[in-house]
Amino acid sequence: MELVTSVLAIAVFAGASLVYAAVGEIVTERAGVLNLGVEGMMIMGAVTAFAAAVASGNAMVGVVVGGVVGGIMALVHAFATITLRADQVVSGLALTLAGGGLASFLGQRLGPGGAPLVGMVGPRFHGVPIPWLSDLPVVGPALFDQDVLVYLLFLVVPAVWFFVARTRPGLALRAVGESPQTADAMGIGVYRVRYLATVFGGVLAGIAGAHLSLAYTPGWTEHLTGGRGWIAIALVIFATWDPRRAVLGALLFGGVNAIQFRLQAEGTTIPASLLNMMPYLLTIVVLVVITRFEALRHRLGAPAALGLAYDREERT
Amino acid sequence: MLELRGIVKRFPGVLANDGIDFELLPGEIHTLLGENGAGKSTLMKIVYGLYRPDAGEILVDGTRVDIHRPTDAIELGIGMVHQHFMLVDTLTVAENVAMGLRSSRRPLTDLDVVAERIVELGERFGLPVDPHAVIWQLSVGQRQRVEILKALYRDARLLILDEPTAVLTPQEADQLFDTLRTMTEDGRGIIFISHKLREVLALSDRITVLRHGKVVGEVDDPTAVTREDLARMMVGRDVKLAPDKAPARPGPARLRVRGLRVHGDRGTEAVSGIDLEVRGGEIVGIAGVSGNGQRELAEAIAGLRRPVAGEILVGEVDVAGSSPAEIHAAGVRYISEARMREGAIPGFTVAENLLLVDHGDPRFRRGVLFDDRAIEEHGRRLVAEYRVKTPGLDTPVEHLSGGNIQKLIVARELSARPDVLIAAQPTRGVDIGAAEYIHARLVEERDRGTAVLVISEDLDEILALADRIAVIYEGRIVDVVDRAEADREVLGLMMAGGHPGSGGETAAAAGGAAR
């Protein structure tokens, strides 16, 4: 029982950044914009969040800065793909590559007085147990003994789901992703919706990065995100573009992470590098299984206009 | 209520609208008639704010207006039913109607209020539809009702319908016309776009004919003109609406399909047990509304889709499940309905496209290399023989018109002298001149002894070409009738699933409700 409790607690903790990034990407893709720059936005969010937290002495300031930086990067993607109609895949990959390089560079300079951030200790989020609730068996420590950013997810996920499924603007968002021509003919501002959705996704990716550098593995090291942005993109497919299911996927990934830590702590003979691969392997396996057996039958649920630029006067 | 003065719209390389004047009165059904590419849709997209005109002015109720975007048009009371439905397949009817409107319960949706109003409007105008149904579950006819309801919901006083009957059975079209007349009774104006002459004559109060972006004729009294008159105005010369055809002299069966079952794109059954026979020297026409398994049937015969069960006998050989190459070798050729996707490669030249199927033929090879001279000679011969209008053999086909691309495909497939020819939608989107030519070639091919299977959603085309007509509905052949005994009304009922002699009308209604 104690094992389950601790694994679950780590799973939630490890999965939080994935939920932020995946939910953001879900909103972006629902508008028909594929942003493969999540990894880049996340790592830029991580480094700038940590730097801002160190400079201001306040972790919350870091989160805000990380979110803004993620949003600005997404804005670049939006301008390139929506206004200039550049290829979404190319622009997204460019964002990831540029973000990784820029983050390494900034990590050398953004400390106080231009010092490197690597190895520096700064403000961070600590677990804030919620009285009484955190004493619940099994789920207590997992859900109610976490940091503020995890608690914020309890609001963000239901809110995004509700927005997409139940509100008029959410309806507009879905329409733009499914058939921009239709949305346009009905008087919905296709470009505006796509810009907003893309920037929203960027902000959440930036916050995801902030959770890594301010809570999960406090501090800055190179390659801090370790491919989590890509896993978040995989989760979007796993979740069939439903934020609720993204949580499930993130927990699964986080859970494998937790088990791997646990095994290492118990002193297993399996090499650590093999164990570190597990979450990534799992992602591939789950994706293959899901697309093969389930999603195909449900027509994958992908927004029909995903990845396509829209041009009103284009003649087809 | 609407007046257009001197509208000009240029696209790269094309003058789509060249100074068009047009007028619509309240309570009037005014038809815009013209061939594909004459500029009808472009003109209406300008009125609806989807395109910006390069010159000219638009007046609504006598005042000059600027229509920058669809919202402006909607506010002026203009509604449009697009040729390709503007509906989101994964949303419900109510959601589609509500899209882009202000909710009475902002920012939440008020879909139950919307649904009520949809039912109300549906009853008033004879457009029944379930507001909670998801679009992809609806038949095309029902989807069109949703499109019209969308406009009515926004209080459209002026409704533009772009080729609304292309996807309807004759009966559904008649129903639509009743609805449209109801709408004009309280002063609404309707602009009807079509190239189906029969309907245009039946419905219109006034007709304006466009050719190459210009107004070439106005008819104030449609009862005073014939279909041939209208066709002449559209094309600019006399046109034969149906090819000259001697009675068929069918030989032995060349294509026999038995118990064929084929799955569609979604993995559900699209062809549910079809038996069909085409003899050499006859044209069998498959009539039916789009999406009833025609495409899957054709693709199964052509080898592009593996059948789940059944036989496809070409002569005595079963080719079910064979590769397209094997099927070509068996003497079957296929003119695909997806001209630019399966029929030709847009970026390839005319000569290359003419070679697509036969690129392995020793005639065009010299060792391991292509024999450029033989290929050029082959291309030159076909282009001349089939009157493909092209600047040259090395022009990419994407620069040709739809009619000329189709002639090129017909040339390629017929030059192989097939035993069996499958022609799917052979003249869809093709200008009347090219259609006339292709029809004549198909009849010629029949007279050469080929077994010809023509699949078309255009009942007039089937009636003009076929010697026998098979009606397809939900993946089954309802009945096969001789052309001489075929009756448009009865065929229309069968296209909606009604069986002959079983009280067609009620069976059709039940078939519609079952979808």
Outline:
The complex is a heterodimer of chains A (316) and B (515). Chain A is an all-alpha fold.
Structure write-up:
The complex is a heterodimer of chains A (316) and B (515). Chain A has 316 residues and is an all-alpha fold. Chain A has one domain (2-301): ABC transporter involved in vitamin B12 uptake, BtuC, CATH 1.10.3470. Chain A has twelve helices and two strands; from the N terminus they run ααααβαβααααααα. A two-stranded antiparallel sheet of chain A has the order 1-2. The longest helix of chain A has 29 residues, at 2-30. Chain A is globular. The model of chain A has no long low-confidence stretch (mean pLDDT 90). Chain B is of the alpha/beta class and 515 residues long. Chain B folds into two domains: 2-235, Rossmann fold (3-Layer(aba) Sandwich); 253-344 and 400-514, Rossmann fold. In chain B, 34% of the residues lie in helices and 25% in strands. Chain B has helices at residues 40-47, 70-75, 93-98, 111-125, 140-153, 170-185, 197-203, 227-235, 294-302, 324-329, 339-343, 350-354, 372-385, 402-414, 432-447, 459-465, 488-495, 504-514, and strands at 2-11, 14-24, 29-34, 55-60, 63-65, 78-81, 158-162, 189-194, 206-211, 214-219, 253-263, 269-279, 283-287, 309-314, 317-318, 332-335, 365-366, 369-370, 420-424, 451-456, 468-473, 476-482. In chain B, the strands form five sheets. Chain B has a six-stranded mixed β-sheet with strand order 6-7-8-3-9-10, with helices on both faces. Chain B has a six-stranded mixed β-sheet with strand order 16-19-20-13-21-22, with helices on both faces. In chain B, strand 19 (420-424), helix 15 (432-447) and strand 20 form a beta-alpha-beta unit. Chain B is globular, with a radius of gyration of 24 Å. The two termini of chain B are 39 Å apart. The chains are: A mainly alpha (316), B alpha/beta (515). The A-B interface holds A 166-169, 171-172, 174-175, 178-179, 181-188, 296-297, 299, 304, 312-313, 315 and B 11, 48, 50-51, 69-71, 74, 80, 82, 84, 86-91, 95-96, 98-103, 106-109, 150, 266-267.
